[in-house]
Amino acid sequence: FLQIRPVVHTDENHNIHLGTVNTDDAIIYSEAALGNGLFKEIHDLVYVRPESFNPSETKNIAIEIDRINSLFAKEGRGYVLIGPGRWGSTDPWLGIPVKWPHISAARIIVESGLKNFRIDPSQGTHFFQNLISFRVGYFTLNPYINEGHYDVGWLNRLEAVYQDRFIRHVRFSEPLDIMIDGKKNTGVIYKPGKRD
C-alpha cells in the first residue's frame, strides 16, 4: 500500500534552506522532519527524561503530559515536546499512549529512540490530520545509531521550571529558533543565540 503524507506548512516562511547545521549549536537536529518553515514564539521545551524513562510507566507519563499540556493550552502558549518511542501509540510498551487533546498545545513534537528503547518511529501517523490542520512540526531521530542529534545533556544542565521523576520543563527567555526544510525533510532546534 502507498501511504501519502502531505507536508505540514507554517504561515511564516515556505522557503527554508537549512544547508549544513553544526550540531554543536543544536538541541535537536533531524533528517526525518515533517513540516516546513519557521516556528516562532516558542519559549518552552518539555521532555521525557531519558535517564529515568521506564516503558512500564508510559500510562502515568501520559497523564502528567496531559496535565502540563492543559496549562499551556490555558495560557495560549505553544511548546516543544520530546519523548521516546511513538507518541500516541495504543501499545504503551511502544511509546507514550497520549491522545491528541493530551498534547494539543505542542507546536513541535519529537520522537527519539533511546539506547535501550529503539522503536520504529510513527512519524506522526497517529495524529497526521491534526499535524496538518494545526501546522505542527514533527521530528524523528535516533541519536544512538547516528540518526539525528539530541543534546539532552545540555538540557539537563539548565534550570527547570518543573521537574518530576519522568519529565522536565525548561523555559527560555528568548524564543527558540526552529526551522524545518520541507524539501529535504531536515529540521533543527537551535540553542539560544547559536543560529547563524
What is the overall shape?
A: globular
Physical arrangement of strands within the biggest beta sheet: 2-7-6-5-4-10-9
The number of helical segments is: 4
Strand/helix succession: EEEEHEHEHEEHEEEE
Radius of gyration: 15 Å
The overall strand count is 12
What's the overall average pLDDT, rounded?
A: 84
Helix content: 10-25%
Strand content: 25-35%
Give the distance, in angstroms, between the N- and C-terminal Cα atoms. 42 Å
Low-confidence runs of at least 5 consecutive residues: 1-13
Structural class: alpha+beta
Main β-sheet description? 7 strands, mixed
Please provide a written account of the structure.
This protein has 196 residues and is α+β, with helices and mostly antiparallel strands. It has four helices and twelve strands; from the N terminus they run ββββαβαβαββαββββ. The strands form two sheets. It has a seven-stranded mixed β-sheet with strand order 2-7-6-5-4-10-9, covered by helices on one side. The protein has a five-stranded antiparallel β-sheet with strand order 3-11-12-1-8.
Concise synopsis of the structure shown:
By secondary structure, the protein is of the alpha+beta class. The chain has helices at residues 58-75, 100-103, 128-133, 152-156; strands spanning 26-30, 33-34, 37-39, 44-48, 79-84, 106-112, 137-141, 149-150, 162-163, 167-171, 178-181, 186-190. It has a seven-stranded mixed beta sheet with strand order 2-7-6-5-4-10-9, with helices on one face. It has a five-stranded antiparallel beta sheet with strand order 3-11-12-1-8.
